[in-house]
Specification:
There is one protein chain. With 97 residues, the chain is an alpha+beta fold. It has a single domain, classed as Winged helix-like DNA-binding domain superfamily/Winged helix DNA-binding domain (Arc Repressor Mutant, subunit A), CATH 1.10.10.10. It is built from five helices and three strands. Strands 1-3-2 form a three-stranded antiparallel sheet. The two termini are 26 Å apart.
Length: 97
Protein backbone atom coordinates (compact mmCIF):
# COMPACT_ATOMS: atom_id res chain seq x y z
CA UNK A 1 0.00 0.00 0.00
CA UNK A 2 1.43 3.38 -0.93
CA UNK A 3 2.12 5.91 1.78
CA UNK A 4 0.13 9.14 1.76
CA UNK A 5 2.37 12.17 1.14
CA UNK A 6 1.47 15.71 2.06
CA UNK A 7 1.78 18.54 -0.45
CA UNK A 8 5.12 19.76 0.99
CA UNK A 9 6.69 16.33 0.54
CA UNK A 10 5.49 16.26 -3.06
CA UNK A 11 7.01 19.69 -3.70
CA UNK A 12 10.29 18.51 -2.14
CA UNK A 13 10.23 15.43 -4.37
CA UNK A 14 9.66 17.60 -7.44
CA UNK A 15 12.60 19.80 -6.39
CA UNK A 16 14.81 16.72 -6.04
CA UNK A 17 13.98 15.59 -9.55
CA UNK A 18 14.76 19.06 -10.92
CA UNK A 19 18.40 18.45 -10.06
CA UNK A 20 18.35 15.38 -12.29
CA UNK A 21 16.83 17.45 -15.12
CA UNK A 22 20.13 19.01 -16.16
CA UNK A 23 22.35 16.97 -18.49
CA UNK A 24 25.57 18.46 -17.08
CA UNK A 25 24.62 17.49 -13.54
CA UNK A 26 23.65 13.99 -14.70
CA UNK A 27 27.03 13.64 -16.41
CA UNK A 28 28.78 14.67 -13.19
CA UNK A 29 26.71 12.27 -11.09
CA UNK A 30 27.41 9.47 -13.56
CA UNK A 31 31.17 10.12 -13.31
CA UNK A 32 30.88 9.91 -9.52
CA UNK A 33 28.97 6.59 -9.46
CA UNK A 34 32.01 4.47 -8.65
CA UNK A 35 34.72 7.00 -7.92
CA UNK A 36 35.72 9.92 -5.77
CA UNK A 37 37.02 12.62 -8.12
CA UNK A 38 38.53 16.10 -7.83
CA UNK A 39 37.27 19.10 -9.83
CA UNK A 40 40.23 19.09 -12.23
CA UNK A 41 39.70 15.44 -13.16
CA UNK A 42 35.94 15.93 -13.51
CA UNK A 43 36.50 18.94 -15.76
CA UNK A 44 38.90 16.94 -17.94
CA UNK A 45 36.56 13.95 -18.15
CA UNK A 46 33.61 16.15 -19.09
CA UNK A 47 35.64 18.50 -21.33
CA UNK A 48 34.41 21.51 -19.36
CA UNK A 49 36.07 24.33 -17.48
CA UNK A 50 36.78 23.86 -13.80
CA UNK A 51 34.64 26.92 -13.10
CA UNK A 52 31.61 25.41 -14.86
CA UNK A 53 32.07 22.09 -13.07
CA UNK A 54 32.52 23.83 -9.71
CA UNK A 55 29.27 25.72 -10.23
CA UNK A 56 27.36 22.47 -10.83
CA UNK A 57 29.11 20.75 -7.93
CA UNK A 58 27.96 23.54 -5.62
CA UNK A 59 24.35 22.99 -6.71
CA UNK A 60 24.63 19.22 -6.30
CA UNK A 61 26.21 19.59 -2.86
CA UNK A 62 23.50 22.00 -1.68
CA UNK A 63 20.90 19.48 -2.83
CA UNK A 64 22.71 16.76 -0.81
CA UNK A 65 23.26 14.58 -3.88
CA UNK A 66 27.05 14.69 -3.47
CA UNK A 67 29.51 15.17 -0.64
CA UNK A 68 33.08 16.41 -0.50
CA UNK A 69 36.27 15.47 1.30
CA UNK A 70 39.36 17.63 1.58
CA UNK A 71 42.81 16.08 1.18
CA UNK A 72 45.43 18.80 1.52
CA UNK A 73 44.59 21.46 -1.05
CA UNK A 74 42.35 19.23 -3.13
CA UNK A 75 38.68 18.53 -2.61
CA UNK A 76 37.31 15.19 -3.75
CA UNK A 77 33.65 14.68 -4.58
CA UNK A 78 31.53 11.54 -4.39
CA UNK A 79 27.87 10.62 -4.36
CA UNK A 80 26.27 11.41 -1.02
CA UNK A 81 24.83 7.95 -0.56
CA UNK A 82 23.74 4.78 -2.32
CA UNK A 83 20.25 6.21 -2.98
CA UNK A 84 21.68 8.62 -5.56
CA UNK A 85 23.47 5.76 -7.33
CA UNK A 86 20.26 3.70 -7.32
CA UNK A 87 18.24 6.58 -8.79
CA UNK A 88 20.69 6.93 -11.68
CA UNK A 89 20.84 3.18 -12.25
CA UNK A 90 17.03 2.91 -12.20
CA UNK A 91 16.80 5.74 -14.71
CA UNK A 92 19.30 4.01 -17.00
CA UNK A 93 17.43 0.71 -16.59
CA UNK A 94 14.15 2.41 -17.49
CA UNK A 95 15.70 3.88 -20.65
CA UNK A 96 17.02 0.51 -21.78
CA UNK A 97 13.61 -1.20 -21.61
Amino acid sequence: MKQKMDIEELYDLAELFKFFGDSTRIRILYELIDAEICVADLAAALEMTQSAVSHQLRILKQSRLIKSRRDGKQIFYSLDDDHVKKMIELGMEHLSE
